Amino acid sequence: MQQETKLDVIAITDHGEIAGACEARELTAKDSYRFEVVVGMEVSTQEGHLLALFLESPVPKFLPLAETIDAIHAQGGICIVPHPMCWLLRSISQNSMDEIVMREGEDVYLDGIEVISPTIASRMTNGRPKELNREYYRLAETGSSDAHFLLQIGSGYTIFEGRTAADLRHSLLNKTTRAAGIKVNLQKIGYGKITRHLFKHTVIMPLLRLYQGFIA
Fold first, then answer.
1. What Rg, from alpha-carbon coordinates, does the chain have?
2. What pTM did the predictor assign?
3. Which of 3, 45, 51, 189 shows the greatest Cβ crowding within 10 Å of its Cβ?
């Protein structure tokens, strides 16, 4: 079972915590899986979601974007913008990315940007993140599956020189990665499951955050 994949490295980025990613890294190391696990998390910043890779401890949530980036880099992590400019999710806007990129001479910077993801939400940006990155930002490009269903795992992926997590890190820092992806048969996942998932993340979770803000 450990050999039934073409993936060399997989980054696990649960929302707001790293416990699952740490456990997966320990399991793969102990049982000699053919792939490595990078510990990461998806962090909620005041400006939107941010992926943090190569972590050893969780990053505080709901900080300003610049402070979150600084906290990630402080522990040797890498910052990647997921589903940028997507109105359906809490995504980092073009204005927010521009503000970070324009901080010339400062230590606050982005490392990469997700330009391919097979999710419905990411398809709504119509390739604009890739265009902006190649014309202006020039960050490392990544592909992510953003998998909330088993069939989605590996549907978006990042191509890099080498086979190891260290090779991936080197390619991200040197901006030599390439993004790719494959189409997922949504019918096999189930439209009901997808609809419930979207409703939870676009309606229920925002209302819950609003309620928590009122009682805080």
1. 17
2. 0.85
3. 51
Instruction: Note the pLDDT tens digit of each residue in 160-202.
Output: 999 999 999 999 999 999 999 887 776 776 667 767 766 776 6
Alpha carbons 49 and 173: distance in angstroms, whole number: 20
CA–CA dist 97, 92 (Å, integer): 7
Distance CA 209, CA 61 (A): 12
Distance of CA 119 to the CA centre of its chain: 12
pLDDT of 1 > 50? The answer is: no
CB 111 within 8 A of CB 173: yes
Contact 144, 170 (CB under 8 A): no
Token pair of 110, please?
């982005």
DSSP for 131-149 reads HHIIIII-PEEEE----SS
Q: Which residue has the tokens 């949504």?
A: 186
